[in-house]
Design a protein that fits this description.
With about 550 residues, this protein is α/β, with parallel strands linked by helices. The protein has twelve helices and 25 strands. It has an eight-stranded mixed β-sheet, sandwiched between helices. Strands 21-20-24-22-23 form a five-stranded mixed β-sheet, with helices on one face. Strands 1-2 form a two-stranded antiparallel ribbon.
């Protein structure tokens, strides 16, 4: 949002950094600044609480703003989540301390779509792994034919499956080629009158349908694209975010441009006048607005003139945007945050599960924990369509490499080779451990190897001295993916002891809310991840071979 002319004040300029708390607060010089159009979170009550605080004495630079040395002390509350589709820019969601900048004014900017059972409205509150589908649509509606085909409703022109590990230690962004031949399942879609219409799926043929037809074709909504990705990868998709052509122009301008670098000059206009019309010499550049949109749309002038080549440009754009958004100039500037939040929310169409500033902020707080060096961009492994002879217009899934990538993502295996942070002991595993003779546990087999409950019982009793243990057979709740140990607060020392014996991670422990009392058993349920007594519960521990990847912290030239 630009500073307004005359006597009007940019609402963003009414928020200043409080050096005592590290948060943004209201500047209270009523003679020069009217009441803000966006009150802090909490409404009028919170605003009155702000008004009771004494205003800091102006010191240096612009009045009411703290010195540079103090502004540099950024609170973790003001961390910002930065991520987007690799084609259409970067969706910024402001976390905790800056969240009130979005409330009220920005909440109405967001457009939502109810995708029904295609998503998971509780994904964020459950604090598990999160899968978000970011879709860049090539819709030209309302653009006056500026980019061709003015009536195009838009398809899934660029799609990224953004996976964030349960422990927030890493994230993987998988670009899905739009020209991949794949089946599209039946798709229930909610109509304007509230009724549900099921759009028939299309089985995969030799050349069609293409993945991009999962959106727009025949009235398919983003939920159809989510269902297609789940069918393709076996991974559940929790949420979607949809952006259009205007998003990349608005957002790239809001951050002051996105640095990129080319190994070769690009002149993307063919003899028919088709292309993105981008003209840039080799070397470093900063792109924004129309030029940024042209950059992420460029295809014809690249090595093979394909969508796969274009994805490489988009990866660089995304990584550079993340670095740009992490810069101190953005994090410590209320006007820049205001502009960015305004641009982002106007560009958003999301599912109802995250359809609101408060929900997006909660999601942001979860995802912003991932460091740029642990965010990896890769492309879904594909091969040329063997059904095509000569020129290959489509690709198909690489049935050898793709399953290994899906398995790594499912098991939260990071694709980055960056040095991992030193592990800290989870609070659930810290503290005293009970003597094995005091440990009481009942064991169920909920997906482990046949007979695992009995072999584990024998191992605990004969080698560890856990004599108060019982094999109760198959789990009453059926099979489960993960091994779990349920215990009461007054059994914490027993749980720590058993976890140490069995090499259980803290994530396997499920603490109850009320004490159990003496003589009560804990419940150990062996899941599909259980490989044997004392064997660590781990998935694949190696990177899938021959997977193309790049991390958000690396500056690279492409083209």
């Amino acid at each position: 949002m630009d500073t307004q002319g005359g006597n009007e004040i940019d609402p963003a300029d009414q928020w200043v950094l409080d050096p005592q708390t590290g948060d943004f607060r209201l500047r209270l010089d009523a003679r020069d600044n009217p009441a803000p159009s966006v009150p802090p979170q909490g409404g009028l009550h919170a605003l009155r609480e702000e008004q009771r605080r004494p205003a800091p004495e102006p010191r240096g630079g612009r009045r009411g703003r703290a010195p540079t040395s103090r502004r540099a002390k950024r609170s973790t509350k003001r961390k910002v989540l930065m991520w987007t589709s690799a084609t259409l820019g970067f969706l910024v969601v402001v976390g905790s301390g800056g969240a009130y900048l979005l409330y009220r004014h920005f909440d109405s900017n967001i457009t939502t779509v109810d995708v029904g059972t295609a998503g998971n409205k509780n994904a964020t509150s459950n604090h598990g792994a999160v899968n978000i589908l970011v879709i860049g649509t090539d819709s030209r509606i309302g653009l006056g034919g500026k980019y061709g085909d003015a009536g195009s409703v838009g398809h899934a022109d660029t799609t990224i499956l953004f996976h964030v590990a349960k422990d927030r230690s890493n994230a993987t962004a998988v670009s899905i080629p739009r020209d991949m031949a794949t089946g599209i399942p039946d798709c229930p879609t909610k109509q304007k009158d509230g009724s549900i219409k099921t759009i028939p799926g299309t089985p995969r043929g030799k050349f069609a349908p293409r993945f991009n037809e999962s959106l727009g074709q025949g009235g398919r909504d983003p939920g159809c694209t989510m269902r297609t990705v789940t069918k393709l990868t076996g991974l559940p998709v929790d949420h979607f975010i949809l952006v259009d052509f205007e998003a990349v122009k608005t957002l790239s301008t809001a951050v002051g441009g996105v640095p990129i670098c080319l190994t070769h000059a690009i002149h993307d206009t063919n003899s028919k006048g088709e292309g993105s019309h981008l003209n840039l010499p080799r070397g470093p550049h900063t792109v924004q607005g129309e030029q940024a949109l042209a950059f992420v749309r460029t295809r014809h002038s690249l090595k093979n003139g394909s969508d796969l080549d274009r994805i490489d440009l988009q990866k660089q754009f995304l990584a550079s945007m993340i670095r740009q958004m992490k810069s101190g100039d953005t994090l410590t500037s209320p006007p820049k945050l205001f502009k960015l939040a305004n641009a982002a929310t106007k560009s958003l169409t999301v599912d109802t599960g995250i359809g609101g500033v408060s929900k997006l902020t909660a999601l942001a707080k979860e995802l912003s924990q991932v460091d740029p060096e642990r965010i990896v961009f890769t492309t879904l492994p594909v091969i040329d369509n063997p059904a095509e002879v000569g020129y290959h217009a489509t690709v198909v899934l690489d049935e050898t490499k793709a399953p290994r990538l899906f398995a790594a993502i499912k098991n939260d295996v990071s694709l980055t080779e960056a040095k991992k942070k030193p592990k800290t002991v989870d609070a659930r595993l810290r503290g005293t451990k009970a003597n094995p003779s005091q440990v009481r546990v009942v064991i169920y087999n909920g997906g482990g190897p046949q007979g695992a409950a009995q072999t584990t019982l024998n191992w605990l009793q004969n080698t560890k001295g856990v004599n108060h243990s019982t094999n109760s057979g198959n789990a009453p709740g059926g099979k489960q993916d993960r091994t779990t140990l349920e215990y009461a607060p007054d059994q914490a020392d027993q749980a720590r002891a058993l976890a140490a014996m069995l090499n259980l991670p803290a994530t396997a422990l499920r603490r109850g809310t009320t004490d159990a009392g003496p003589g009560t058993d804990m419940t150990l349920t062996l899941g599909r991840d259980y490989q044997g007594a004392g064997v660590p519960l781990t998935g694949p521990d190696k990177l899938p071979p021959d997977i193309d990847k790049a991390t958000a912290d690396k500056r690279e030239c492409v083209g």
